[in-house]
Amino acid sequence: MDIFRTVLMNAAGAHHEEPKKGSYEWKKEHLTPEQLARTSDNKEKYSGIPAIPVDIGYNSGMNVGGAKKTGVMSNASSNPGVIIGMGLTTAALLGMFKSSFLGDKVGAQKMMQYRIMAQFFTVTALVAGVTIFGATYEDDEHAK
């Protein structure tokens, strides 16, 4: 929002912006020369873009041998029923939109019912996958 205000003020020709308190420009105006000599200008050292912490950046994991497999594809391979249910839900939604746009109220209602069935299948597959995973999970650290 601050960028838009600056652009509008520059376009209007009324640009007189006070430096933010604590910034080097503010310190140059408000500190004594002795205090200013002890203050460094960190403009080159720090940018306005925050750094990404190493533990979450660049797909790094605790494994030394390579990148840890994460994301949609690994989850899909562990529980493909959820992906099938999502596809069925999407197909039912698209069919409902098509029927609605064509003015077929009975067809749109039927597709809404199919969507509810597909969502029920998706939730059931998700719960079944979590249940099966919980029943077959073995903690390597606990086993030792």
UniProtKB/TrEMBL annotation:
Comp. bias (Basic and acidic residues): 14-32
Residues annotated as domain HIG1: 51-144
Coiled-coil segments: none
Region of interest: Disordered: 14-44
Protein's UniProt keywords contain Transmembrane helix: yes
Pfam families on file: HIG_1_N
Keyword Protein transport in record: no
GO cellular component: mitochondrial membrane
A single BP term in Gene Ontology: mitochondrial respirasome assembly
Transmembrane residue ranges: 80-97, 118-137
Superkingdom, taxonomy of origin: Eukaryota
PANTHER family (UniProt xref): HIG1 DOMAIN-CONTAINING PROTEIN, HYPOXIA-INDUCBILE GENE 1 HIG1 -RELATED
Record's protein name: HIG1 domain-containing protein
Organism for this UniProt entry: Caenorhabditis remanei
